């Protein structure tokens, strides 16, 4: 990626591949540009989602930056479309994140990111996201300042250099390095310990989903870590625990209580942000999506998203 891929300097500063044909008809150039933007769209949505935490907002950011790209290209052809677009999307997502932080102060209960569920998204809106960015890690990123989060995501996940990140956050490369140091420390302190999938890991996943589906209290207690933490997000519209639930006994009773209320729903296993998860389905409708973390064969964290605007419309399961 170019150190000078600055969308705010599109009429002055372009680097990268061979220049586009300035004499090409405008309609042909727009089609060419649209094809390239479609190709890189999953990466752009991944950048935006990692920063703002919801797919809808990420898609809005990427759509907005397409309009900016088309307008900039009319002035002078953008040679490195991907470099330009990543910077533009990251800047716009940072603005959205700063605004969202203010709005989330009054959120009812814990605010959780929107879960990315395999098979739930339209192919046009697929997200390219490093497997290391688990749902639990997305929650940890919420504890960072917007500048720290942007620095960590762009540098650690998407491989941008510090000078490139500096263009996005509006600080010097030296200042960005300091942001990176603080962000790494916060992430290291808050990131959950996660097992690489093994036979033991798979047994814990299967046992947890089966116990939740059957409302099996003793089965849940057998697979929960004594200090397991559960958070749930209903967006103020769905009745969930508005405070985190701590401890195996409390979490097990909470989950079996939820299961008793959802007698018509199927509990199915699925992949959430690249890790183990489950969902409650009524026919094709999704009632909630859960993500959980496994360490040493026990579930150490459970996060449940029931806020309607964060749930996939259909899972096709």
From TrEMBL:
<dbReference type="InterPro" id="IPR032710">
    <property type="entry name" value="NTF2-like_dom_sf"/>
</dbReference>
<keyword id="KW-0731">Sigma factor</keyword>
<dbReference type="InterPro" id="IPR013325">
    <property type="entry name" value="RNA_pol_sigma_r2"/>
</dbReference>
<feature type="domain" description="RNA polymerase sigma factor 70 region 4 type 2">
    <location>
        <begin position="140"/>
        <end position="186"/>
    </location>
</feature>
<protein>
    <submittedName>
        <fullName>RNA polymerase sigma factor SigJ</fullName>
    </submittedName>
</protein>
<dbReference type="InterPro" id="IPR036388">
    <property type="entry name" value="WH-like_DNA-bd_sf"/>
</dbReference>
<dbReference type="InterPro" id="IPR013249">
    <property type="entry name" value="RNA_pol_sigma70_r4_t2"/>
</dbReference>
<comment type="similarity">
    <text>Belongs to the sigma-70 factor family. ECF subfamily.</text>
</comment>
<keyword id="KW-0805">Transcription regulation</keyword>
<feature type="region of interest" description="Disordered">
    <location>
        <begin position="1"/>
        <end position="27"/>
    </location>
</feature>
<dbReference type="InterPro" id="IPR007627">
    <property type="entry name" value="RNA_pol_sigma70_r2"/>
</dbReference>
<feature type="compositionally biased region" description="Low complexity">
    <location>
        <begin position="17"/>
        <end position="27"/>
    </location>
</feature>
<feature type="compositionally biased region" description="Basic and acidic residues">
    <location>
        <begin position="1"/>
        <end position="16"/>
    </location>
</feature>
<comment type="subunit">
    <text>Interacts transiently with the RNA polymerase catalytic core formed by RpoA, RpoB, RpoC and RpoZ (2 alpha, 1 beta, 1 beta' and 1 omega subunit) to form the RNA polymerase holoenzyme that can initiate transcription.</text>
</comment>
<dbReference type="Pfam" id="PF08281">
    <property type="entry name" value="Sigma70_r4_2"/>
</dbReference>
<dbReference type="Pfam" id="PF04542">
    <property type="entry name" value="Sigma70_r2"/>
</dbReference>
<keyword id="KW-0804">Transcription</keyword>
<feature type="domain" description="RNA polymerase sigma-70 region 2">
    <location>
        <begin position="37"/>
        <end position="101"/>
    </location>
</feature>
<dbReference type="InterPro" id="IPR014284">
    <property type="entry name" value="RNA_pol_sigma-70_dom"/>
</dbReference>
<dbReference type="InterPro" id="IPR013324">
    <property type="entry name" value="RNA_pol_sigma_r3/r4-like"/>
</dbReference>
<dbReference type="InterPro" id="IPR052704">
    <property type="entry name" value="ECF_Sigma-70_Domain"/>
</dbReference>
């Amino acid at each position: 990626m170019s150190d000078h891929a600055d969308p705010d300097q599109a009429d002055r500063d372009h680097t990268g591949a061979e220049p586009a044909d300035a004499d090409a008809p405008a309609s042909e150039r727009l089609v060419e540009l649209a094809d390239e933007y479609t190709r890189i769209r999953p990466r752009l949505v991944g950048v935006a989602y990692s920063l703002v935490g919801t797919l809808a907002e990420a898609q809005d950011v990427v759509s907005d930056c397409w309009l900016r790209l088309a307008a900039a290209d009319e002035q002078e052809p953008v040679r490195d479309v991907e470099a330009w677009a990543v910077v533009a999307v990251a800047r716009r997502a940072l603005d959205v994140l700063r605004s969202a932080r203010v709005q989330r102060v009054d959120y009812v209960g814990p605010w959780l990111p929107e879960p990315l569920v395999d098979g739930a998204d339209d192919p046009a809106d697929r997200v390219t996201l490093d497997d290391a960015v688990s749902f639990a890690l997305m929650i940890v990123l919420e504890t960072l300042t917007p500048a720290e989060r942007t620095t960590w995501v762009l540098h650690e996940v998407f491989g941008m250099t510090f000078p490139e990140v500096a263009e996005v956050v509006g600080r010097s490369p030296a200042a960005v390095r300091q942001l990176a140091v603080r962000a790494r420390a916060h992430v290291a302190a808050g990131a959950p310990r996660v097992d690489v999938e093994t036979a033991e890991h798979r047994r814990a996943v299967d046992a947890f989903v089966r116990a939740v589906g059957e409302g099996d209290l003793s089965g849940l207690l057998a697979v929960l870590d004594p200090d397991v933490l559960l958070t749930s997000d209903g967006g103020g519209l769905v009745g969930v625990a508005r405070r985190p639930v701590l401890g195996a006994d409390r979490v097990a009773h909470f989950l079996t209580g939820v299961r008793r209320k959802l007698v018509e729903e199927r509990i199915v296993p699925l992949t959430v942000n690249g890790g183990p998860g489950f969902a409650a389905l009524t026919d094709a409708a999704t009632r909630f999506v859960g993500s959980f973390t496994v360490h040493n064969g026990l579930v150490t964290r459970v996060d449940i998203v029931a806020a309607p605007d964060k749930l996939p419309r259909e899972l096709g399961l």
